[in-house]
From TrEMBL:
Organism encoding this protein: Selenomonas sputigena
Domain 6-phosphogluconate dehydrogenase NADP-binding span(s) in chain numbering: 16-174
PANTHER family: 3-HYDROXYISOBUTYRATE DEHYDROGENASE-LIKE 1, MITOCHONDRIAL-RELATED
Keyword NAD found: yes
Regions that span the bilayer: none
Gene Ontology molecular function: oxidoreductase activity
Family per record: Belongs to the HIBADH-related family.
Record keyword NAD present: yes
Domain 3-hydroxyisobutyrate dehydrogenase-like NAD-binding: 177-293
Name this polypeptide is given: NAD(P)-dependent oxidoreductase
């Protein structure tokens, strides 16, 4: 069975990938797929946004359905669950046109929607995985994403070479929706950690210390985290450029809180982080990176 899976994975690697969503993350993911030798067709609502990728060798499709017809694997990396649902289940969506093969949604989305897409795909003889990622724009550029997958284990085995072109930490978590549940764990951990990082930097500045020196020092100790190492320097230099948008983080926190409520689980840290980010969004910072939480402290 393992030999058969390896053979199928090798054959899959030779076929075309359709990629929907060429934003901050998606563009880098497409480039890494092409570097790994995959022919890629992209779709984005505005063709102009795909101009650079097309100049580098990607083909362009006029709709999700058109993209799906010629792609063995369709990958999506878009903004919101409503976008995911339209892409796959809409009248001109991927599942309306695709015959066999596989679909992989790498958007951070709803576990319930992942299960819905899985069921609809299975009825059409299409394998489906939910495989959200973590690692931000840096991880996407350097093909170091953490990839959390849910769906059937056989589909995961077939998709592994595709995932390896984009990420380093790749793990299968179980049935459809499991990848999204795992990603919510990631977002929950980040939410409270970002408050801690921002408060530590605000405290360092208010106390008159060299905040950069504090950041460099405590990042090597027990307080160390990806956010402290990579986003605290951006906080201190007032770099608000998005590796991950506040508006998208708010979407994730709402999904996590909704699913936690369904489980009967109270998450006070996540609720507070959501409140602070909502206040920043109301002040016009929703298109900034998540490190802009530092602005809330106004130091």
């Amino acid at each position: 069975m393992q030999a058969d899976n390896a053979k199928e994975a090798k054959e899959l690697a030779k076929e075309r990938i359709g990629f929907i969503g060429t934003g901050v993350m998606g563009s880098s993911m497409v480039r890494n797929l092409m570097k790994a030798g995959y022919p890629v067709t992209v779709y984005t609502r505005t063709k102009e946004k795909a101009k650079a990728l097309c100049a580098e060798g990607a083909a362009w499709a006029a709709s999700p359905a058109a993209l799906a017809k010629d792609a063995a694997v369709v990958i999506s990396m878009v903004g919101y669950p409503k976008d995911v649902e339209e892409i796959y289940l809409g009248p001109d969506g991927v599942l309306s046109a695709k015959q066999g093969g596989m679909v992989i949604d790498m958007t951070t989305s709803s576990p319930a929607l992942a299960k819905k897409i899985f069921a609809a795909a299975k009825e059409r003889g299409i394998a489906s995985l939910d495989a959200p990622v973590s690692g931000g724009d840096i991880g996407a550029k350097e093909a170091r994403l953490a990839i959390m997958a849910g769906g059937e284990s056989e589909a995961f085995a077939e998709a592994l070479p595709v995932f390896e072109a984009m990420g380093k930490t790749i793990r299968y978590f179980g049935p459809a929706g499991s990848g999204q549940y795992a990603k919510m764990c990631n977002q929950i951990a980040i939410a409270s950690n970002m408050m801690g990082v921002a408060e530590a930097m605000a405290y360092a500045k208010k106390s008159g210390l060299d905040a950069k020196a504090v950041q460099e020092t405590i990042a090597t100790g027990a307080a160390g985290s990806w956010s402290l190492s990579n986003l605290a320097p951006k906080m201190l230099s007032d770099d608000r450029a998005p590796g991950f948008f506040i508006k998208h983080f708010l979407k994730d926190m709402r999904i996590a809180l909704s699913s936690a409520e369904e489980m009967g689980l109270d998450l006070p840290g996540l609720k507070l982080a959501k409140k602070l980010y909502e206040e920043l969004s109301a002040r016009g910072f929703e298109d900034c990176g998540t490190q802009a939480l530092f602005l809330w402290y106004d130091v």
